[in-house]
Structure formats: C-alpha cells, structure tokens
C-alpha cells in the first residue's frame, strides 16, 4: 500500500505557501514534505517543476523554509530580522540561476537549469521572500491567530485585517470552536 502524505495548503504567495509546508508549528506539527518526492510534488504545483530531489537537498530546502518563517515572523511582529535567517535567504537567492521567461500568452514562467533545478527553484522562493520582507509588494505580513498555528501569511485583503493563514482550516476550526462555546453557554443559562 502506498504511504499517505498530508495534503498541501497552497496560498497565492510562493514564499509563505512554502513556509506552510510545515503547519501547526505550535501544536502537533504536520510536516507536509516529509520525503524528497513530496517536495518535488509541491514544487510542481507551485510552478517550479524539477526532476529530482535528494535527501540533502530536502534538508537545504527545509533550512530555507525555516529561515523564511523566522524572518517573516519577526517582520510580522515588527522585530528586527534575525541575521542568521537573512544570511540563509540571501545565500539561496544568490545560488539560484532561474530565468524568468515570458510565454507568448503573456504569462511569466521560471526556467530552471538542467543540472541545478532544485537550487534554482529554492532561489526563486528566496527571492520571493525577499520581495515580501522588503515591503516591495502590496500587502502585510501577519501571523495566524490560531495559537497552535501562528503561521506567517501575506495579507493582501483591502482592509488588511485577515486573521487566519487559511480560512478552510484554521479559520473554520476557530469558527466551530466559537459556535460550540456559544452553545455550551446558552445551555448553561437555560438550566
Ligand atoms: Zn493558521
């Protein structure tokens, strides 16, 4: 029987979608890229298809992921960016040799090198993180309001008041919890 792996939670923003491959960091953490081929799968659905990934490359990808998470968390809290995280992000960005190419239909695609595809893909993710952390893009870094999650996400809502990393999971769970609490309360007053 093939092993089952947790689904991906894909966002619209590459860098925070990547940090979301480890979720519930303050609860029962869920590693969504537990093996190299799941990182290959995630990259494919994120527009960065690569042929292969080694265990060492997965380790490097996770190192980048945690650096982005640390930097994004600091930025969301208004703290100074951790120097070690900045170094890791810059290192990955500098190693990447991906080329942005324009399709005849007017879409941007990433062209990765044949021998360095994984590194190039990580370089694209690192550069995406840099553009968010540098405040170049329209939006605000924030942390999920769920106490067991606290994922960093990029809020592009008009009012900048988004509370959850993901409405279908964290947002929904919170709504249900509030509903049950209200029910308990009204049951209590009826007695
Ligand atoms: Zn969340």
UniProtKB/TrEMBL annotation:
Annotated Pfam families: ABATE, zf-CGNR
Transmembrane segments: none
Listed InterPro entries: ABATE, ABATE_dom_sf, Znf_CGNR
Domain Zinc finger CGNR: 140-182
Superkingdom of origin: Bacteria
Name the record gives this protein: CGNR zinc finger domain-containing protein
Organism (species): Streptomyces albiaxialis
Phylogenetic lineage: Bacteria, Bacillati, Actinomycetota, Actinomycetes, Kitasatosporales
């Amino acid at each position: 029987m093939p092993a089952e792996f947790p689904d991906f939670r894909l966002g619209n923003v590459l860098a925070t979608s990547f940090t979301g491959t480890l979720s519930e960091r303050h609860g029962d953490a869920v590693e969504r890229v537990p093996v190299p081929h799941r990182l290959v799968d995630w990259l494919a659905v994120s527009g960065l298809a690569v042929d292969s990934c080694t265990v060492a490359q997965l380790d490097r990808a996770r190192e980048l992921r945690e650096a982005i998470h640390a930097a994004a968390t600091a930025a969301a809290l208004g703290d100074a960016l951790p120097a070690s995280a900045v170094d890791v992000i810059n290192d990955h960005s500098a190693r990447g040799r991906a080329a942005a190419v324009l399709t005849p239909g007017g879409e941007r695609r990433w062209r990765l090198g044949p021998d360095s595809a994984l590194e190039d893909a990580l370089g694209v993710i690192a550069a995406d993180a840099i553009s968010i952390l540098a405040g170049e893009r329209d939006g605000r870094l924030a942390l999920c309001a769920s106490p067991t999650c606290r994922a960093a996400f990029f809020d592009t809502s008009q009012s900048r008041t988004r509370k959850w990393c993901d409405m279908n999971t964290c947002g929904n769970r919170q709504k249900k919890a509030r509903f049950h609490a209200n029910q308990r309360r009204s049951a209590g007053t009826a007695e």
